[in-house]
Structure formats: structure tokens, C-alpha cells
Design goal:
This protein is mainly beta. The chain contains three helices and 14 strands.
């Protein structure tokens, strides 16, 4: 098999003649992923700066724990997807050069994303030894996450599913984490007081925060910061070099929708 350059050999597109950047999917055959650099390339540079501090204090029958943390996330991303992706519905269609779909990123139309987020948290807990054979655990944690931003405000999202144009810049969505108070309660009981039997029960709420990694592919490759060319039914004979020009002329734009007023997301655990 030989890798196909679906963009042709036009140096103005940023690729040398014969570049191996094609990908073929033919129903009934193993997908051919092309040669060097054929797959979409994504670069991630992730920094997280964290500070934690905890205090332990025992007084009488109480064992207190207090603490807090703050984390600053820098998630730098680049989606340099340069592949031309042809799909053929059958081997017969491939032999007759009748592709079903075609898609490709537009070279030079990709913007790096520099996502930023801050995650503060505090907690307090008391292990209360009510009796020699009975301990009660009481705790409360507050943890929230700022809505992801982009260092140059290069964010794009549809404000509704029926929107005709994206909202550019911040806010990406409304923050559902501002009231993320998470209680914890537990009990440990030795009913006979001989250290041989323990009855335990516990309950806690654990929040699921909307962190930057969940939006990596949503923030990338989104109009107007990245352009994607695609054709639903390329004309017969358009493989390998004609489909790209037709797809670019169609001016296909890719947008994403994120729920703009999400509810709190959390997990309840008990035993």
C-alpha cells in the first residue's frame, strides 16, 4: 500500500509533494492510517502549581483536622490535524473511486489554546471520641473550580443548540461549583467494648469538578480558531487530489455546544 497525499502536491498548502498524510477507511477492509504524520497530531503542555497546608489539633475527646489547598492549572494545547480522511462505503466503491465522505483540517488555520483554571479548597474534620467504644467522624469540605479561560480569550462555544453564531471569549459557561459544600459523616462502634467487633457506617458527597482536560478537544479545532473542510458526498473521481479543494469551497465550519448553565455534578457514597 502507498500513502496518498489527498491535498495534492501544491507546495502552497504547506506540504511537500508526495507527503504521506492520507488516511483511508474502506468498509470490509482494515483502515489504512497512511504514512508519516498521517494521523492528527495533538501537542499538550500541562503545568499545575499546587500549594497545600494542614493543621492537626487534639483537645480532650476531639481530634480536629483543618486544611486547604489552591491549584493553578496551565493547559497549553495545539491540534495540528493535517490529515485528509477518505471513507469508502465498500471495496467496490473504492475501485470505482466513489468516496462516501471526506474531511481534513485547513492547513495554517489552527490556533494554539492556552487554557487556565484555579481550584481552591478548604476542609474541617473532627474525630469525636464520644465514648471509649464509640467514635463519630464529622467533616465538611468546600472545593470549587473557576470556569476555564484562555490566555488570549480565544474560546468559541454555541450559546444554544439553535444558535446561528458562536459566542467568542469568556465566560465559557456559568460556574456550577460556587456552592460545592461536601459533608462527610462516619461512625465506628465497638458494641461489646472488647476490641474484637467493629460496626462502621459512613456517608459522603464528592464533587466532580469541570476541569480543563474535559474541554481539550472541545476548545481545539473549533471555528474561528480552527477550520475543517469536509464533504458528505464527494463526486466520483475526486480521490485523491480533488476533494480538498471542493471541501474548502464548501466552507464547512465546526462549532461545539456546551451546556451554558450546568447543574452541580457530584457523587454520593455510603457504606
Amino acid at each position: 500500500a502507498t500513502a496518498i497525499n489527498p491535498l495534492g502536491a501544491d507546495p502552497s498548502l504547506g506540504f511537500a509533494p508526495g507527503s504521506n498524510i492520507g488516511e483511508l477507511q474502506i468498509t470490509g477492509l482494515t483502515t489504512f492510517a497512511g504514512g508519516l504524520n498521517s494521523e492528527g497530531t495533538y501537542a499538550y503542555h500541562y503545568n499545575t502549581y499546587q500549594f497545600y497546608d494542614d493543621l492537626f489539633w487534639t483537645r480532650g475527646t476531639h481530634s480536629f483536622k483543618f486544611g486547604g489547598s489552591i491549584e493553578r492549572v496551565q493547559s497549553n494545547e495545539l491540534g495540528s490535524t493535517t490529515t485528509g480522511y477518505f471513507v469508502f462505503g465498500s471495496f467496490s466503491n473504492f475501485l470505482q473511486n466513489i468516496p462516501s465522505t471526506y474531511s481534513s483540517a485547513v492547513p495554517g488555520a489552527t490556533t494554539p489554546m492556552y487554557l487556565r483554571q484555579t481550584i481552591p479548597a478548604i476542609y474541617a474534620q473532627d474525630d469525636w471520641h464520644l465514648r471509649r467504644n464509640l467514635t463519630l467522624n464529622l467533616g465538611l469540605r468546600y472545593e470549587m473550580a473557576s470556569v476555564p479561560t484562555e490566555a488570549h480569550n480565544n474560546l468559541s462555544v454555541l450559546p444554544s443548540l439553535g444558535a446561528t453564531a458562536p459566542h467568542l471569549g469568556s465566560p465559557y459557561f456559568s460556574n456550577p461549583t460556587k456552592r460545592d459544600f461536601s459533608p462527610r459523616i462516619g461512625i465506628a462502634w465497638d458494641p461489646f467494648g472488647d476490641g474484637r467487633t467493629a460496626i462502621r457506617a459512613a456517608y459522603g458527597i464528592y464533587d466532580t469538578l469541570p476541569l480543563t482536560y474535559q474541554f481539550s478537544l472541545l476548545a481545539l479545532n473549533t471555528e474561528p480558531y480552527a477550520l475543517t473542510a469536509s464533504l458528505a458526498k464527494p463526486p466520483k473521481g475526486s480521490f485523491p487530489s480533488q476533494a480538498y479543494g471542493l471541501a474548502v469551497d464548501a466552507q464547512t465550519l465546526r462549532n461545539v455546544y456546551i451546556e451554558q448553565h450546568p447543574h452541580r455534578s457530584y457523587v454520593e457514597q455510603w457504606s
